[in-house]
Amino acid sequence: MYKVADLGGIILLPVPAFYISPKKIEELIDHTMGKILDHMETDNSLYERWGGKG
What sign does the dihedral 35-37-39-43 (CA atoms) show? Predict the structure, then answer.
């Protein structure tokens, strides 16, 4: 992974986001796919982004 990152590749591990309190496996899949599409700069509404304050 170091070599890929060193060459400019993006490493996005498909780690389940249990902090979103998913009720179905599809919600975990949508969250991961939404993150991938975000990195590809592709508009999507597969998950609710955290806005935070500040």
Answer: negative
